[in-house]
Design goal:
The protein is an alpha/beta fold and 456 residues long. It folds into 2 domains: 22-51 and 311-455, Aspartate Aminotransferase, domain 1, CATH 3.90.1150; 59-308, Type I PLP-dependent aspartate aminotransferase-like (Major domain) (Aspartate Aminotransferase, domain 2, 3-Layer(aba) Sandwich). It is 38% helix and 13% strand. A 5-stranded mixed sheet has the order 2-8-7-6-5, with helices on both faces. A 3-stranded antiparallel sheet has the order 9-14-11. A two-stranded parallel ribbon has the order 1-10. Helix 1 (22-31) packs across helix 13 (362-374). The longest helix has 20 residues, at 312-331. The radius of gyration is 22 Å and the shape is globular. The model has no long low-confidence stretch (mean pLDDT 96). It binds ligand F0G. Ligand F0G binds next to helix 4 and helix 5.
C-alpha cells in the first residue's frame, strides 16, 4: 500500500488565488495599518485566518441547495434537517440559528441570570462574551497539561474534574449548567476524551446540573477518540458521536465548522424545560422556529454537511494535514502547541522571536511577517487579542504568544501546506530582521479586529 495519504476528493470547481509581490504586500499591509484583519481577502494567497464558514461545499451539498424550501413556517427543509440532527444527537428539540454565537445568545439569555457562574474547559471568546454580557462569570477549568504548549498529552482539552467538583460544592447555587467545548479551540483545538466527558456528566448529575456541550468540532473530536482512546479503535465515527451526545442535556453548535457549511448554527435540547423561553428568544432575535435565521437552502446544505463531516476518510485526512504541517515546523525548529489540533496549528511565536519583548507583540509581528514573506494569513492569539490597555496607559499581557493557522475544510491541497511550511521556515531564518509593532489606535474591547499599528 502506498503510504501517501491523499485528499479524499477531487476538485470540480476552482477559485483562482493571486500571487502578489513582496513590494505590493508591504504597501497593502501598511494600508491595513499592520493589521491582517483589515486586508482584502483577494490580496491573501493562503487564508488561514479561520476554519469557520470558509470551507468548500461538496457537489452533493450544492445539489441540495436547489432543494431548499423557502416557506416561512413548516418548511420541508427544516424537517429534513431535524431528522438528521435527531438521529445524530438523540435530542428532542432542534432550534436553528444563523451561527454559533446566536445559539449561545438565545440559550444563555433564556436560562442564565446575573450572578450565575458557568464552568467550561475553555470558553471560546464569543461564549465568554455572551455570558459576561449577562453578568455571568465564565470559568475556564482545563487540565493543567492543556496550558503547556510543548507538552504532549492525548486529550489536552479535558476538564479538571477536581476543580469542577470544588466549584459545585462551594458555589453550586450559582451554577445553572456545566459546559464543555469539543474540541477545545481556545486551548489549541485539543480533544476531550469520552472518559472525561462521561465523568463530567456524572459529576454534574450528582449535583443536579445539566451538561451543555459546545459541539462546533464534534466530528474532529470523535476521530481523535477513535485514534487515541482505548476501546474505540474499531468504533464508527457515528457511534462515537452518538455516545458523546447521549451524555449531554443540550448543545450549542456553529455549523460553520463540522457542519461543513458557510453559515449556520443550532441549539439542541433534550427536555422541554427551557423550550418556551428559548423559543421566545429565538423568535425575538433570529426568526420563526422552523428557519431560525437561515434560508431553507442553508438547512438543506447542513443536512448533507453533517453527514459528510463524519466521514472517516475525510477526518483521517483532515487531522493528518495539521499533523503534517507540525512535522514540517519541527524540522524548521519552530515551536507549536503539541500535539497539533484538529482544525489548526498554533505556532509558539516566542520560539521564532525569542529576543522580542512582549511589549512589541511578537505573535502579531510573526503574523505580519508570514503575510509579508508569502501572503499567508493567520491570526494572532496573544497580547493584542487578550492583553488590555488600562486607563492609566499601562498594559496587561497574555501568558502565551501564539499564531493560529486554521484550515478551511476541503480547500487547500498538500502543495499549499508545503508552500506555507517553506514560508514559515524562511521567516524563522530571517527572524533577526523582523520588526515588532506598537498600537496607535484601539477600541476598548476586542481590539485585535480593528486596532491600528505602526512598526516599532
Ligand atoms: N464556539 C467555538 C468553540 C468556536 O470556535 C466558535 C467560533 C464559536 C463558538 C462561535 O461560532 O462563529 O458561528 O458564531 N469560532 C471561529 C474561529 C470564529 O475562528 O475559531 P460562530
Amino acid at each position: 500500500m502506498p503510504k501517501t495519504l491523499i485528499e479524499p476528493f477531487r476538485i470540480k470547481s476552482v477559485e483562482p488565488i493571486r500571487m502578489t509581490t513582496r513590494g505590493e504586500r508591504e504597501q497593502l499591509l501598511e494600508e491595513a495599518r499592520l493589521n491582517v484583519f483589515k486586508l482584502h481577502a483577494a490580496d491573501v494567497l493562503i487564508d488561514w485566518l479561520t476554519d469557520s464558514g470558509t470551507g468548500a461545499m461538496s457537489s452533493r451539498q450544492w445539489g441540495a441547495i436547489m432543494e431548499g424550501d423557502e416557506s416561512y413556517a413548516g418548511a420541508r427543509s427544516f424537517y429534513r434537517l431535524e431528522r438528521v440532527i435527531r438521529e445524530i444527537t438523540g435530542m428532542s428539540h432542534f432550534i436553528p440559528t444563523h451561527q454559533g454565537r446566536a445559539a449561545e445568545k438565545v440559550l444563555f439569555t433564556a436560562v442564565c441570570k446575573k450572578g450565575d457562574l458557568v464552568p467550561n474547559n475553555s470558553h471560546f471568546d464569543t461564549t465568554r462574551a455572551n455570558l459576561e454580557y449577562l453578568g455571568v462569570e465564565a470559568v475556564d477549568l482545563v487540565i493543567p497539561e492543556g496550558l503547556q504548549p510543548a507538552l504532549v498529552h492525548p486529550f489536552k482539552g479535558n476538564i479538571d474534574l477536581a476543580r469542577v467538583e470544588h466549584l459545585l460544592q462551594t458555589q453550586g447555587d450559582r451554577i445553572p449548567f456545566g459546559m464543555i467545548t469539543v474540541t477545545n479551540n481556545t486551548g489549541g483545538g485539543q480533544p476531550v476524551s469520552m472518559a472525561n466527558m462521561r465523568a463530567y456528566a456524572a459529576l454534574l448529575k450528582k449535583y443536579g446540573k445539566p451538561l451543555i456541550m459546545d459541539v462546533c468540532r464534534f466530528s474532529e473530536n470523535a476521530m481523535f477518540i477513535k485514534m487515541r482512546e482505548a476501546g474505540y479503535e474499531s468504533a464508527s465515527i457515528k457511534s462515537i458521536v452518538q455516545e458523546m451526545f447521549a451524555l449531554a442535556d443540550g448543545c450549542t453548535m456553529s455549523a460553520k465548522k463540522d457542519g461543513m457549511v458557510n453559515i449556520g448554527g443550532f441549539i439542541v435540547l433534550r427536555s422541554d424545560e427551557w423550550m418556551d423561553a428559548v423559543r421566545n428568544m429565538l423568535i425575538l432575535t433570529e426568526g420563526f422556529p422552523t428557519y431560525g435565521g437561515l434560508a431553507g437552502r442553508d438547512l438543506e446544505a447542513l443536512a448533507v454537511g453533517l453527514e459528510e463531516g463524519m466521514d472517516e476518510d475525510y477526518l483521517r485526512y483532515r487531522l493528518r494535514t495539521a499533523e503534517y504541517l507540525g512535522e514540517r515546523l519541527e524540522q524548521a525548529g519552530v515551536g507549536f502547541v503539541r500535539p497539533t489540533g484538529g482544525h489548526a496549528v498554533y505556532i509558539d511565536a516566542k520560539t521564532v522571536l525569542p529576543q522580542m519583548p512582549v511589549a512589541h507583540y511578537p505573535a502579531w509581528a510573526l503574523c505580519n511577517a508570514l503575510y509579508l514573506q508569502g501572503g499567508v494569513r493567520g491570526v494572532e492569539i496573544g497580547s493584542v487579542m487578550f492583553g488590555r490597555r488600562l486607563d492609566d496607559g499601562t498594559e496587561t499581557y497574555h501568558s502565551m504568544e501564539l499564531v493560529r493557522l486554521a484550515f478551511p475544510r476541503r480547500m487547500y491541497t498538500q502543495s499549499h501546506f508545503d508552500y506555507a511550511a517553506e514560508v514559515i521556515a524562511e521567516v524563522k531564518q530571517m527572524a533577526a530582521g523582523i520588526r515588532g509593532v506598537r498600537i496607535t489606535k484601539q477600541p476598548r474591547v476586542l481590539r485585535h479586529f480593528t486596532c491600528e499599528c505602526a512598526w516599532v
